[in-house]
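Lecture 7 notes: from sequence to structure.
We start with the chain below.
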Amino acid sequence: TAESQKEIHPDGTKTETLMNAQGERVSMTQVRADGTRMSCTFNDNGRELYRKTMFPDGTYQEENWEYDSSGTLGMSRILWSDGRMREEYFYENGVVSTQIEREQNGETRTSTFTQKGNMISLICVLADGTVAEERNEYDEKEMLLSTYHKNPDGSFNETTYYANGNRKMQVITLKDGRTETWHYTEDGTTGTTTTISGTIKETYHSNG
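Predicted structure tokens for the same chain:
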């Protein structure tokens, strides 16, 4: 038989919790002194599955979570009343593997990560439908090997790295297809540049 437990806190917050026959929480409703109202539900293991928070100004946010058979968190999602959204998927170690975000204007960002939390890719679809993209490649120790960045106008640049983390080569490609190539020494102090016009020159710079 389900049992309802009610409580009034010193700050005026009122809480009502529904318990099952085993004494486990099934759902909870909370009304704060400022009028904010929160309701949530729980699974058989006591983990929160769903929460909705209604604010005095009429806005709200909804949150929900999914777990695997062992109880490990697999997904979380937040929806806001203004149209924003964030959805995250997790590795077994709790690190985010994929994150999807949507802004109020419709812009979306989808990111993927390694199990150590380093970003693998980012795809951003702007409100006007144009796309920006980033990709990173790592070795088995997750040292950065290369990066790729594409701009919404179609231009992009690619960079490779030495084992010490300094840039090795960078190719900048304009939207009309013309390129500029930079080669760096391993200590990052000198290099050669092939400019867009085709001129080759020696350069001196700091690496990073």
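Points to note: The CA atoms of residues 161 and 167 lie 4 Å apart. The chain is about 0% helix and 55% strand.
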